Each structure stands twice: as structure tokens, then as C-alpha cells.
Amino acid sequence: MRRLAYRVAGRRVTSIMPLTPSRALVLKKLCDTFPDAGAAKNALHSLKHYQGSSPAETYAVHLAILKLSGGELWRLREYVKIAKKGDPRDVIYPAQSPEQTAYTDKVLPLHVRRLKVRPLSLAKEAAMQRRDQAQWSKWLESSGA
């Protein structure tokens, strides 16, 4: 596993990604997420619209998009648009760290309005990261959406 680190609302956030995302893993998760052959073909066509700076980045973003889509083709297309327009982490982070994303989405508006926000304790933050890492690994290893 490789850890990516960056800042969200002034806090250091780590993201977890398999060391080398592969096309084979993307195709496996595509078939799991879209069991219907026609939908899978359309999803693969849509995923091809996002190409990262390297094959590993492309596959990492494709995996994140598949997870976030939840088997809905329209959602997959929306996440492809998001990844193409901005930073690929805009789809990687929510896919890998849904609990941390939900917390950030809740706290960030308060932080922007300069209201006092009590930060999470280091233990709670570490526990949240472990749960997020576990759910991401479980999703990658599962056979199903």
C-alpha cells in the first residue's frame, strides 16, 4: 500500500492506494460493479475519457470512480467529468476515505465561517483513518459492488 498525503482545511490527510493499481483490477471491479455486459461496456467507454499522467494514476482514478458510482452509470459519468476537470484527488479521496470526507464536509463550512471547531483527537483521527483504510481494502478485495 502507498500513502498519499495532502492538506484539507489545514489538516494533513493521508490517502491509501494499492502500490500498483492495474488494468486487471479495474476490469475486475468494473465487472463486479456493472454485472450487466451492456452497462459494463458503456462504463468502460466512459472511463476511457479520463487519462491521467501515468497508467498507475489512470487506474487509481478509475477504481475510485467505480467505487463512487455504486453501479450507476450516470454517477460514473459525473465522476469522470469531475476527475477530468480538476484534481484527481477529488475522486480518490472520497472513495478511499468516506468517513474522513464526511467529517471534512461537515467541518469545512464551519471553518470557513471562522466558527470555533473542536479538532478530532489524534486517537479518533487515527481510528477514522484505519476504518477508511479497512473499507477501501475490503472493497478492492471483494467480488461485488
Give the terminus-to-terminus CA distance.
21 Å
Q: Which structural category fits the helices and strands?
A: mainly alpha
Helix content range of the residues, please? 55-70%
Per DSSP E runs of 2 or more residues, the count of β-strands stands at: 2
The tally of helices reads 7
Low-confidence stretches: 4-9
Please indicate the count of domains: 1
Order of helices and strands: EEHHHHHHH
The neighbouring-strand order within the major sheet is 1-2
Mean pLDDT reading = 83
The amount of beta strand, in percent, is: 5-15%
**CA gyration radius, whole angstroms:** 16 Å
Largest sheet: 2 strands, antiparallel
Structure in a nutshell:
With 145 residues, the chain is mostly helical.
Give structural notes.
By secondary structure, this protein is mainly alpha-helical. It has one domain (2-141). It contains seven helices and two strands. It has a two-stranded antiparallel ribbon with strand order 1-2. Strand 1 and strand 2 form a beta hairpin. The protein is globular and about 50 Å long. The model is unreliable at 4-9 (pLDDT under 50).
